[in-house]
């Protein structure tokens, strides 16, 4: 990978300086297949130390989307031929109208919901189980957990979260929903084969016959930047860095995310100054420049946020 001659620093009040590549690769939109909706903005019931958009109970950088905003987005998405949907936040189950949003979305395509699982009580799990079986399109849940012991998980996600997340997973399993367990590799070695095998056995012990796990590398922005480190000036992409065929594998070649205030290339960039593409999905169809620091991680690790 070539070294940058110089990297631009975008100044922004209320935000640390952001390094951007002076000569980034450009990526066309193949087709808008996948649409993310930041339904609860940056509001979350917990505040994980690796959260790349620094979500928490008091973070109003992005507010919750209203039912009307989601409805209008879905109409526009249908016009653009979107094939699948993701709900994220923050914590989607904080949304007071989450059931209506789920049903509206499932009326027009498959839906995955990213959650920490803590707010899924027995009644919600039973409702999700019914929807899981009866909806016209598939419903999938992704529950985040950063270790198979409280000693591993709780220093990252907060005291007591391990037990509360496990309880949510068990409730989902008891109502016939098999969530994908999403594990961020917050410690060296977590993604190695024996660690994955131990994790799979642990999930099996929760009453899930066919465990599904997704391991993700951390992105060095948001709170993770304080927990470990931020990106260096050399960790940016430049013209010519993408391998043949790589562009099509990056999720931003076929996805966008909509928040309360507009459209961004992907879920990683909603707090990144300068990354906003406009206010309508149509604005999001234009090519993007992979000028941002997290693009480096996508390139090096082949990361995709899709399930
Ligand atoms: S990582 Fe997920 S659960 Fe944790 S604070 Fe961020 S949005 Fe909330
Ligand atoms: S961070 Fe990753 S998914 Fe987002 S625009 Fe950059 S390469 Fe694409």
Tell me what the structure shows.
- With 307 residues, the protein is of the alpha/beta class.
- The chain has a single domain, classed as Aldolase class I (TIM Barrel, Alpha-Beta Barrel), CATH 3.20.20.
- It is 29% helix and 16% strand.
- The protein contains nine helices and twelve strands.
- It has an eight-stranded mixed β-sheet, with helices on one face.
- Helix 1 links the parallel strand 4 and strand 5.
- Helix 1 packs parallel to helix 2 and helix 3 crosses helix 5.
- The N terminus is likely disordered.
- One iron/sulfur cluster binds next to helix 9.
- The site of one iron/sulfur cluster has 13 residues, from helix 9.
Main attributes?
307 residues, 8-stranded mixed β-sheet, binds iron/sulfur cluster, 9 helices, 29% helix, two-stranded antiparallel sheet, alpha/beta, TIM Barrel, disordered N terminus, 12 strands
């Amino acid at each position: 990978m070539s070294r940058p001659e110089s990297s631009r620093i975008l100044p922004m009040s209320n935000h640390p300086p952001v390094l951007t590549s002076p000569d980034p690769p450009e990526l066309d939109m193949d087709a808008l297949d996948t649409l993310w909706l930041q339904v609860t903005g940056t509001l979350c019931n917990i505040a994980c130390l690796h959260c790349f958009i620094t979500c928490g109970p008091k973070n109003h950088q992005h507010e919750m989307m209203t039912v009307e905003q989601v409805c209008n987005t879905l109409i526009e998405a249908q016009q653009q031929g979107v094939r699948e949907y993701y709900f994220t936040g923050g914590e989607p189950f904080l949304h007071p109208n989450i059931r209506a949003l789920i049903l509206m979305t499932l009326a027009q395509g498959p839906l995955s919901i990213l959650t920490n699982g803590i707010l899924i009580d027995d009644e919600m799990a039973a409702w999700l189980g019914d929807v899981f079986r009866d909806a016209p399109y598939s419903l999938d849940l992704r529950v985040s957990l950063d270790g198979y012991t409280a000693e591993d998980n709780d220093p990252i996600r907060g005291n007591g979260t391990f037990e509360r997340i496990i309880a949510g997973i068990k409730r989902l399993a008891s109502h016939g929903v098999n969530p994908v367990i999403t594990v961020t590799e917050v410690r060296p070695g977590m993604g190695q084969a024996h660690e994955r095998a131990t994790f799979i056995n642990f999930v099996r012990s929760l009453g899930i016959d066919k465990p599904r796990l997704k391991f993700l590398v951390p992105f060095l922005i948001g709170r993770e930047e304080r927990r470990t480190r931020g990106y260096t000036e050399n960790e940016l992409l430049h013209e010519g860095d993408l391998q043949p065929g790589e562009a099509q594998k990056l999720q931003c070649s076929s996805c966008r995310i909509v928040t309360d205030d507009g459209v961004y290339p992907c879920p990683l960039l909603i707090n990144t100054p300068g990354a906003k593409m406009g206010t309508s999905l149509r604005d999001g169809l234009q090519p993007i420049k992979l000028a941002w620091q997290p693009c480096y991680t996508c390139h090096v690790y082949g990361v995709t946020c899709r399930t």
